[in-house]
Specification:
Elements lengths: L1 H56 L1 H5 L5 H16 L7 E8 L2 H4 L6 E12 L10 E12 L15 E7 L9 E5 L7 H14 L1
Antiparallel strand pairs: 1-2, 1-4, 2-3, 4-5
Helix pairs in contact: 1-3
């Protein structure tokens, strides 16, 4: 009886060791992949912040664009993303710009609201063993540009108007689409809020 009990105890200990080891490997794998996902998110966020700075630094160029300032703004931002985000090829991108009408900004101001969103994935390495294939990564930013002038400013359209640049995750760089926006119902609540804040700062 004693030998049987001793053998059973050893068997239980082995089972427990295997279970604990498997749990530790799983936790370690998830931690490593979570860290990898976080770093990719940081790179994505940094690229979006750089794109914002590129847009702000080229406000006069955007302001005096002869065709469509909102499309020109989208292109400035997207060009910066192409230069600074290596994972852009497999990412979904949306850049929306909306210029408020003169009746809201006043004759000496132009206010353009911008929303930039990049969605990608981090492909798991260790966690795939446990059914976690990838981690979704998304960063969004909203801001406004105010190309100020002390005199009446030039604008190609006194009414509100905008443009949205989109690139699907399965589309190559260079296969972006542009959509003209003619109503505030075409923009998100977050962009609405950024524009309202920008208008409040003008007054």
């Amino acid at each position: 009886m004693k030998r049987f009990a001793k053998g059973a105890s050893r068997g239980q200990a082995l089972v427990m060791f295997v279970l604990v080891a498997a749990a530790l490997v799983m936790v370690l794998g998830l931690a490593i992949d979570a860290s990898g996902g976080w770093w990719k998110s940081q790179r994505q966020n940094d690229a979006i912040e750089i794109a914002k700075e590129a847009a702000l630094s080229r406000s006069n160029e955007i302001k005096f664009d002869a065709t469509d300032s909102t499309r020109a703004l989208d292109e400035v931002i997207y060009s910066s993303l192409k230069q600074n985000l290596s994972e852009l090829k497999g990412s979904e991108v949306s850049v929306t710009s909306w210029e408020v009408p003169e009746s809201e900004s006043g004759s000496m101001n132009r206010l353009i609201g911008v929303e930039v969103s990049v969605t990608g994935t981090y492909k798991c390495v260790f966690a795939q063993t446990f059914g976690f294939g990838s981690i979704p990564i998304k960063n969004t930013i909203t801001f406004t540009i105010n190309p100020y002038s002390s005199t009446e400013v030039w604008r190609q359209n006194t009414s509100g108007h905008g443009c949205r640049l989109t690139k699907a995750a399965d589309k190559a760089i260079g296969q972006e689409t542009y959509t003209a926006l003619s109503a505030t119902s075409d923009i998100s609540d977050a962009l609405h809020a950024a524009i309202e804040k920008g208008l409040a700062e003008l007054s």
